[in-house]
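testing teh design pipeline on a random one, pls ignore if ur not involved
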């Protein structure tokens, strides 16, 4: 559900979200600003996010789009003093860069002035190019944005990744919880790195055999691929296969009370190692982040110790390179 962004503010509240996580800061109010952007700008961001959602663009694509508009136009609809027609279209600021207009400063080759100055249409034009760029899912934000914009200052997009995470979170109704990082308090710094990396991939599609140490592949992650990526952050190699994960990190922990955030929890269809079919990263308090199945996305499962399926399938947990505190 999208937030309804109303009101205005002279000075925006620059409250941050959480590094690497798509979520709005707790207590953030679109009417008074989020991540340095005021209500009118956030309304434009909401239009970008809504368009992406309608097109099936994953949250990561929405972050790239919003960050691009932050850099190009400060999330404002620009007219251009050298394009007379643009001055007759509703706008919020006026620039004079070539024939660029709108939230993304798109030039004439992108479409009509009306199309480029309409928030939803201009966002659609951006997504159409981004989503057809080979490998965009595994690119750093700077490269993904640059592949669409071909900017003279490609590195400038990087500074907007965290503000974009917070703004997309606000537009999507996702509020940060817990401590800075992932919203999860880990028992030690290594576990925190692992958790932050996994949580940062929420919204990525499930793709069988997807994911490696550098991020999503083939458009997403499978359950073990997400573990490969998460633990690569602390230099620990994790097999890209659930039964191999179980074998590689024995002894197993079978008492849920002894499992800590940063441990991998595994599930078996027959209660034996040869039936293991799924793995998730434990977050504490009965929660895990995982890549569930085809048609779903990386997300958090709650109350796994009481959920009939997870409770029945649980075989144990393993600890990979994350020391006991």
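output:
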């Amino acid at each position: 559900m999208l937030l309804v962004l109303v009101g205005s503010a002279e000075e925006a509240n620059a409250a941050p979200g959480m590094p690497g996580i798509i979520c709005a800061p707790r207590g953030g109010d679109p009417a008074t600003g989020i991540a340095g952007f005021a209500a009118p700008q956030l309304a434009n961001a909401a239009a970008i996010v809504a368009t992406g959602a309608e097109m099936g663009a994953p949250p990561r694509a929405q972050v790239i789009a919003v960050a691009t508009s932050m850099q190009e136009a400060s999330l404002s609809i620009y007219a251009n003093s050298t394009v007379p027609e643009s001055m007759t279209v509703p706008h919020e600021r006026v620039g004079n860069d070539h024939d660029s207009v709108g939230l993304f400063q798109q030039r004439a080759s992108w479409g009509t002035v009306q199309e480029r100055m309409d928030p939803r249409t201009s966002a659609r034009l951006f997504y159409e190019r981004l989503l057809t760029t080979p490998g965009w899912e595994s690119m750093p934000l700077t490269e993904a944005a640059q592949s669409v914009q071909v900017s003279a200052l490609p590195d400038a997009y990087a500074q907007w990744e965290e503000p974009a995470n917070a703004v997309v979170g606000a537009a999507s109704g996702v509020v940060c919880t817990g401590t800075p990082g992932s919203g999860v308090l880990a028992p030690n710094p290594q576990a925190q790195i692992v958790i932050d990396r996994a949580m940062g991939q929420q919204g990525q599609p499930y793709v069988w055999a997807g994911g490696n140490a550098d991020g999503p592949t083939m458009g997403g992650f499978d359950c073990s691929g997400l573990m490969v990526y998460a633990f690569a952050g602390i230099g620990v190699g994790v097999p890209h296969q659930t039964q191999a994960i179980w074998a590689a990190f024995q002894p197993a922990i079978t008492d849920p009370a002894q499992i800590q955030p940063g441990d991998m929890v595994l599930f078996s269809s027959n209660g034996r190692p040869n039936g293991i079919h799924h793995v998730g990263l434990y977050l504490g308090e009965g929660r895990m982040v995982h890549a569930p199945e085809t048609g779903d996305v990386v997300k958090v499962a709650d109350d796994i110790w009481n959920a009939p399926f997870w409770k029945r399938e649980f075989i144990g947990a393993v600890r990979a390179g994350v020391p006991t505190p």
